[in-house]
Amino acid sequence: MSHEYPSQLLANAVEAFASLPGIGRRTALRLVLYLLRQPLANVEGFAEAVARLRQEVKYCHVCQSISDKDTCSICSDTTRDHGTICVVQNIQDVMAIENTGQYRGVYHVLGGVISPMDGVGPSDLNMESLVDRVAEGNVKEVILALSSTTEGETTGFYVSRKLSSYDVRLSTIARGISVGEELEYTDEITLGRSITDRVVFHRD
Amino acid sequence: MSHEYPSQLLANAVEAFASLPGIGRRTALRLVLYLLRQPLANVEGFAEAVARLRQEVKYCHVCQSISDKDTCSICSDTTRDHGTICVVQNIQDVMAIENTGQYRGVYHVLGGVISPMDGVGPSDLNMESLVDRVAEGNVKEVILALSSTTEGETTGFYVSRKLSSYDVRLSTIARGISVGEELEYTDEITLGRSITDRVVFHRD
């Protein structure tokens, strides 16, 4: 019996929630007491959704994204451009780019970025499967869509080196000021980069 | 298949977390992807802790607090003062008061406060069992430890009316400025109340 909680069942459930990132004990207790007030079937449904995801999740054997089948819905979509691969860190990035509605190619999910501080090296990423896809010879362009951080840039550099011997175009998403952002509030590194990477739209 | 999520299993798990109060879809996705990276046994343990709590939870038949047994550890503790009942809104309040180490009596958990806006009336609270405890005749004092809100005050008023015909002392926890709080930053209603409820500590 925990000294702090009046019930071991309660203590266990609070511990479970408090083990999640960004959720402290106070929030965990609030969530658990909320669940206690919900109908039994709802709470069992919650627990089942969590357990089943972890038990039954699959990863697309082509792009390594999360999928219900062996090949994800994007990789099995014949209307998409399979000659263009967008390399991203994780599934959230796939979803963010899909939400723009601006991209018709396919993806490759690395599953992380190189970060010596966190003990993540190149071998921890889905790198070989990307090289294999490019080595097949049907890919025309690989777009690096990685975060503008040291880890993202290191990873991008590593990917481009791994692919440098193949006949494939390498590009990276544009860095610059946000649409709607005011110049005076833009940090100077981004502003500097937006000038060196400027886009020419008229030549006289 | 959700348009937004690449997997129905993922969509279900995100929906489950996003149904919790204060958790939006973005946070829910972050939590779900975190769980996906954890060992299977951990995630199954998480799901089981949540389901078991809701399935097996008991409420103390005396004070209505959450308990693993029919009578909670506080109500079955013979060293505590069973002649003093502290009336609180919920289990968090029991835990908060226990953490002060200043209270040796027992509790009564109402399970809410009267709130017409939220459709909570007196009959939704554990009120009759409180009256029954007082009617037994062994209770000397009932301390109202309710929030200093309209709902808390209304509930306190209702409880005192229900107990007015019994030979029991009724008290309420002191309202005033927090220990360590500076006067100039105290809201004026609290400050006003701290003057009218002032404590005399020396008479000449």
Give a description of the structure.
Two copies of one chain form a homodimer. Chain A is 40% helix and 12% strand. The first copy, chain A, has 204 residues and is of the alpha/beta class. A four-stranded parallel sheet of chain A has the order 4-3-5-6. In chain A, strands 1-2 form a two-stranded antiparallel sheet. In chain A, helix 6 (150-163) links the parallel strand 5 and strand 6 (169-172). At the A-B interface, helix 1, helix 2, helix 3, strand 2 and helix 4 of A face helix 1, helix 2, helix 3, strand 2 and helix 4 of B.
What is the element layout, followed by pairings?
2 copies of one chain form a homodimer.
Chain A: H1 8-18, H2 25-36, H3 40-56, E1 58-59, E2 66-67, E3 81-88, H4 91-100, E4 105-109, H5 128-135, E5 141-144, H6 150-163, E6 169-172, H7 188-196
Parallel strand pairs in A: 3-4, 3-5, 5-6
Antiparallel strand pairs in A: 1-2
Helix pairs in contact in A: 1-2
